[in-house]
UniProtKB/TrEMBL annotation, chains A, C:
CDD domains: TPP_E1_PDC_ADC_BCADC. It comes from Microbacterium radiodurans. Belongs to the BCKDHA family. This is 2-oxoisovalerate dehydrogenase subunit alpha. It catalyses: N(6)-[(R)-lipoyl]-L-lysyl-[protein] + 3-methyl-2-oxobutanoate + H(+) = N(6)-[(R)-S(8)-2-methylpropanoyldihydrolipoyl]-L-lysyl-[protein] + CO2. Pfam families: E1_dh. It comes from the Bacteria. The branched-chain alpha-keto dehydrogenase complex catalyzes the overall conversion of alpha-keto acids to acyl-CoA and CO(2). It contains multiple copies of three enzymatic components: branched-chain alpha-keto acid decarboxylase (E1), lipoamide acyltransferase (E2) and lipoamide dehydrogenase (E3). GO terms for molecular function: branched-chain 2-oxo acid dehydrogenase activity; magnesium ion binding. Signal peptide: none annotated. Residues 50-319 form the Dehydrogenase E1 component domain. The keyword Oxidoreductase applies. SUPFAM superfamilies: Thiamin diphosphate-binding fold (THDP-binding).
TrEMBL record, chains B, D:
This is Alpha-ketoacid dehydrogenase subunit beta. The keyword Oxidoreductase applies. The lineage of its organism: Bacteria, Bacillati, Actinomycetota, Actinomycetes, Micrococcales. Keywords: Oxidoreductase, Thiamine pyrophosphate. Its cofactor is thiamine diphosphate. The keyword Nucleotidyltransferase does not apply. InterPro entries: THDP-binding (IPR029061), Transketo_C/PFOR_II (IPR009014), Transketolase-like_Pyr-bd (IPR005475), Transketolase_C (IPR033248). It comes from Microbacterium radiodurans. Residues 15-190 form the Transketolase-like pyrimidine-binding domain. PANTHER family: PYRUVATE DEHYDROGENASE E1 COMPONENT BETA SUBUNIT, PYRUVATE DEHYDROGENASE E1 COMPONENT SUBUNIT BETA. It holds the Pfam family Transket_pyr. SMART domains: Transket_pyr (SM00861). GO terms for molecular function: magnesium ion binding; oxidoreductase activity.
Length: 381, 335, 381, 335
């Protein structure tokens, strides 16, 4: 069964602020979120747009780098920019973010250097950045085993509760957690258990599901025949379905959900309806499983075009868009240059962090490898 | 049906391992309409390695299921389907994604025949592409065989050639017991001869793939290729290696190995998996027990290091190659 | 947090037919089920009562046998008779039942010899009976790893769909699956995945949750802060909450759910509110974690007393109840006698069914053990 | 606080293993308020083996959590709590119930320090009552250590005496690395001396528990008792056995074992777990490598059989007892 975008697109319960052409046209469900949207200064609106364009350029660059053999793999965020920008911009500085593995936009917004994501996909690291370094905005590293990170997020949220780092009534200080996962991952048992724990410990947590309609070649209809947003209700979590290609709606629902969660009202679930406009990864061939009709349907709902339409209607100058495009190109170019400069790894490094404390077997093998490699050097000498 | 399908041919064909497997699966499905394939992306896409390509088109959506994305669900429902008389063949997309299904495999699938006192059998095959050499990200390069070989109630096999892939998958499907079927993913592409007219060996037999007199090299899956490379290099140095392909990891057919070691007096075991508490430990301990007086040197093991599989750029340093095998051969000979 | 029986007991969405004293007093939600209740002939009503009394006597006997050292363990079904009798009597001959490990009532109703459950808890077998033997009414064996069996049930249901053994429109022939699990088990990832698969493949399946308010010492409020019945809705499964101490209501909701499921309408979920009146198992001491007030509250809602009240109000003779008591005593006595007659196991048997086909290592060890034991015999000779 | 709590006492006390553990946990919690206990029924009930009895009353519901019933959830949220600076100690109720958490243990907990390149550490302890001899139903008598010792990134230990229980749990909690803490449940009740004034040995040291000259017996957990029984019986037959308690299963402190084998020339490894691809295989293979020229006989392994743990009435036939150890001792001596 192919994805049925039309059915979802006309879901009356969907929170949407902008029509596909960018016209302000809030759905009934969007009413309560409008004050949040209206409070956004123009500079912030421009930031949203700039984020999306910039990271799309980066994403395209990374795809090219993979094609040139520079990366092992690239999972494009192409098409999901609005859901990611909206939700990431909705977080506050003190929040913790647990991405899955396609949240390039989220990560870079929070301060992660895109080269760290590149290093991961190049095969230079399994991590890439330091979540404890303030410059990375409490962004945790990627998790490739689908759904696992949802439990880490619930546990982190439990820690916030136990430490009284949340629920004091001060939104500027109260902390919250947001965890990202996909429509495919939603079927994993871990996601269920993460919701059970979150509800049981009343964590200040938002489960942010990007329903991009596909799990590689499998349509979301295989994972669920009713909107996935309904899952959250089963745990007593208020749950919202948002048009994930509408950056303003995505921002507003996430902002409110996070603020409610941090105020002590407990976990929330958001399903952001979006679309993976590109391949699953650079190894994938979507023509095997989806129609060009479907791709066209979604191309007409491109999140960047929509926001551009909105800004244009608000009177943004053509020069603004040109500037953003230029900045984005420079950003992507910088990534390309730095990718080419990436060095290699010292084999010894694979032993360094297997444990935090010295481990005799590992030390012995480390020594063995060093001696072994030295023996070749000698041979050559 | 594609014209090069092996099952319709009578003569020997040259096929890549992945296509040989595909042909074996097709033959198994054609022979028994209770055989079902289930997994993530195996239907319309034909699997991320294209092993099941064309099979959904040929046998329909009821025989080749694109399941929801949940490994415990895949194995757990396969168990229920087996109870209903099916012979499910589950695909786990990559080695590192089998662990969410570990409880269903270890505490259920492996034990259910015993729990039912033989009144039901559980002919479920779990196919797992495994091993390194493909430069992939975390969880995509691991060799989890020890977890399964330690679990009573499972059978564990791993073909290393297209012909074995073709036949062993059919034998695994025909087995009334659960079979963990490990596919060395770096071997998917190289071609080899497939003879659809007759199976060469039983499912659980090991095979001497090269004769030699000085040292016995033993391994499975992609490691067999490395052992053969090492043997060729050793020959140029005047050392004669016998090479045994385990094929079946549980049970192990020890006779050819012990036989060989009785002649050579020396053995090196090669594996990609970390060495500690590994299949190599088992083979070393048992061969030592069975050929104690013939051994001139302890059985040496060459393994992945006992650290998490490193980032792809280091797989070359992590995975045993022919040089590391030779280093062990030299050490064994130095005793 | 202790269980809060009052809140649940007054849940307006609860399906209840009988008041605690047995008076016919259907709740609003029970309306649609009344025809099913009214269609029950008196003989069937008496059977329900007889089932409950008989299996309670057996259960008490087994508890005593454990205390006498005859069993390794006994998990009493005491208090859950109505949920189990109602649901098991609602199944049709062709249905398949997947119990967890406390469904003694369900199993015996379907034809399982109680001595087979005794053998399991005595440590003579991990199974006990043959689900393929028609005399056991398609009752599958117990599963001790909580939640695992829900996936087996979904898989079995998929098989029914694939084989066209269901959904033909003939309720006398169409098959269905019912799977039992507890409030504690509901938190397991496998239960979630079982629901995902059931919904995805539209299995003819009923998820029957006995919420007995406790998972050993942990109250259901730890597993969920909203009624567990709401979980099912998240998968698009119509879900019903029933008074599980009301055998008539339990029968009717299960009957309808199974018949809807078998007709092709897909899986359903039932939460039966009941109470584990005894200990978790004979190793447990409930006074450590629950109050006698709570136990008294539920003692007043004893499922057997309720049905007896109903039958008395319908005019059943005192002699009927005496007869049932006598039968039950005889039944329990028979179990005691047969327990005492149970033999021992031949060590060789542990090798017999590890695999279906001969396995060289196992054969070698079997032979080794035989020789080893024979060596002692020789020693003695 | 109960008056017999060991941590407040200064002198040596005689305690059952379970109470020694309880005292060790209490001391760890008192020393560091980031230590949390989490698991099923560990709070109000004090655990099904009463190991955590009284701790919730003493430290409160925020330090001793009765979690929802989900093992993957327990370990997965413990990981998140560790990220938030806690040191969670998870209890798995019985050995057979650890498998639903296997993915979180193997692919997450074990690898997260490495994945974070050392920028975060994961001081999570997973306590697992394990092993047989308690006559229980399925999944309640198993010895799953090999699954963990094969997994790089984990440390695995198992105390066999109350004093080790008391100290090793504290050292495990203090470890910055994840520790699988295996508690031999048949040893919960017997008493032994606990000296709260000083730890006897580091966490990862093995210990010679009986001196002898003819054969080295090695094992861990409840098996140590069996080995000591066998040694006592052997003595009456004039055979002198040295007994080594492994204590740490990963890493293994091989020095005392190899030392011993160099002197005795013979070794028997005892374990309750099935033998195939087991910890015993590892120890046999490595000791053979390190003491090759000293060995008069192959290292012999006495293990549970390679079938699912049988129904309780057969545990006596399944589990190695002193007689089966002696049979192997005799075989070793016959070489
Ligand atoms: C447990 C597990 N099983 C399988 C995979 C292989 N895999 C990687 S991505 C993917 C599809 C994920 O779909 P979804 O959750 O919708 O995320 P999306 O790719 O659409 O962002 C699969 C099957 C995995 N990473 N983890
Ligand atoms: C996976 C797993 N974890 C833990 C246990 C141990 N255990 C046995 S019964 C039980 C409580 C079950 O509660 P519930 O599901 O409500 O069923 P009930 O006992 O109330 O019938 C626990 C924790 C188990 N059997 N399986
Ligand atoms: Mg998706
Ligand atoms: Mg319960």
């Amino acid at each position: 069964m192919p994805a049925t975008p039309d059915a979802d697109a006309h879901d009356p319960a969907l929170v949407r602020v902008l029509a596909a052409d960018g016209t302000l046209a809030p759905s009934a469900e969007a009413e309560r979120y409008l004050p949040l949207v209206e409070a956004l200064p123009d500079s912030e609106l421009e930031t949203f747009y700039r984020d999306m364009v910039t990271v799309r350029a980066f994403d395209r660059q990374a795809t090219n780098l993979q094609r040139q053999g520079q990366l092992a793999l690239w999972p494009p965020s192409f098409g999901q920019e609005a859901a990611q920008v909206g939700s990431a911009r909705a977080t506050r500085a003190q929040d913790h973010l647990f991405p899955s593995y396609r949240e390039h936009v989220v990560c870079t917004i929070r301060g992660v250097d895109p080269i760290d994501i590149i290093r991961l996909m190049r095969g230079l690291t399994h991590g890439g950045w330091d979540p404890t370094d303030p410059k990375n905005g409490n962004t945790h590293i990627y998790t490739l085993v689908l759904g696992s990170q949802t439990l880490h997020a619930s546990g982190y949220g439990m820690g916030m509760v136990f430490d009284g780092r949340t629920g004091t009534g001060d939104p500027e200080r109260d902390e919250a957690v947001i965890v990202y996962y996909g429509d495919g991952a939603s079927s994993q048992g871990d996601v269920h258990e993460a919701m059970v724990f979150a509800a049981s410990y009343n964590t200040p947590q938002v489960f942010f599901l990007q329903n991009n309609h596909w799990a590689i070649s499998v349509p979301v209809s295989t994972q669920s025949r009713v909107p996935l947003v309904r899952r959250g209700e089963g745990y007593g979590m208020p749950s919202i379905r948002v048009d994930g290609n509408d950056v303003l709606a995505s921002y507003a629902v996430t902002r409110l959900a996070l603020d409610e969660a941090r105020s002590g009202e407990g976990p929330r679930a958001i399903e952001a309806l979006t679309y993976r406009m590109g391949a699953h990864t650079t190894s994938d061939d979507p023509t095997k499983y989806r129609t060009s009709d479907e791709e066209r349907f979604w191309a007409q709902r491109d999140p960047i075009a929509r926001m551009r339409g909105f800004l244009e209607q608000k009177g943004a100058a053509a020069s603004f868009f040109d500037e953003v495009d230029a900045e984005a190109a420079a950003y992507a170019d910088d990534v390309r240059v730095r990718t080419n400069e990436l060095g290699s790894l010292d084999p010894d490094s694979m032993f360094t962090h297997a444990y935090s404390e010295p481990h005799p077997l590992v030390e012995q093998q480390r020594q063995w490898l060093a001696d072994y490699e030295a023996s070749f050097e000698e041979g050559r000498a | 049906m594609s014209i090069d399908s092996a099952d319709t041919a009578t003569g020997v064909q040259t096929l890549p391992f992945s296509k040989a497997l595909n042909a074996g699966l097709r033959a198994a499905m054609a022979n028994d309409d209770r055989v079902l394939l289930m997994g993530e992306d195996i239907g319309r896409l034909g699997g991320v390695f294209r092993v099941t390509e064309g099979l959904q088109a040929e046998f329909g959506e009821r025989r080749v299921l694109d399941t929801p994305l949940a490994e415990s669900g895949i194995v757990g429902t396969a168990i229920g389907l087996a109870m209903a008389g099916y012979r499910p063949v589950c695909e786990i997309q990559f080695d590192g994604f089998v662990f969410p299904a570990f409880d269903q495999i270890t505490s259920q699938l492996a034990k259910l025949t015993n729990r039912h006192e033989g009144r039901m059998s559980f002919p479920v095959v779990i196919r797992i592409p495994y091993g390194g050499h493909i430069g992939a990200v975390e969880h995509h390069q691991e060799s989890p065989e020890a977890y399964f070989t330690h679990t009573p109630g499972l059978r564990v096999v791993s073909p290393s050639t297209p012909n074995d892939a073709y036949w062993m998958i059919q034998d695994a499907v025909a087995s009334p017991d659960p079979v963990i079927f490990l596919e060395p993913k770096s071997r998917y592409w190289p071609k080899g001869e497939v003879d659809p007219s007759a199976r060469a060996l039983p499912l659980h037999a090991s095979r001497v793939v090269r004769r030699g007199t000085d040292v016995t090299l033993v391994g499975h899956g992609a490691m067999v290729t490395v052992l053969l490379q090492a043997a060729a290099l050793a020959e140029s140095e005047g050392i004669s290696c016998e090479v045994v392909d385990l094929r079946s990891l549980s049970p192990i057919d020890y006779a050819p190995i012990v036989d060989s070691v009785r002649r050579t007096g020396r053995m090196v075991y090669g594996q990609e998996a970390p060495g500690f508490t590994s299949l190599g430990s088992e083979v070393a301990a048992t061969v030592t027990e069975q050929a104690f007086f013939s051994l001139e040197a302890p059985v040496l093991r060459v393994s992945g290091f006992d650290v998490p599989f490193p980032a792809a750029k280091l797989e070359g340093a992590y995975l045993p190659d022919a040089d590391r095998i030779l280093e062990a051969v030299d050490r064994a000979l130095a005793y």
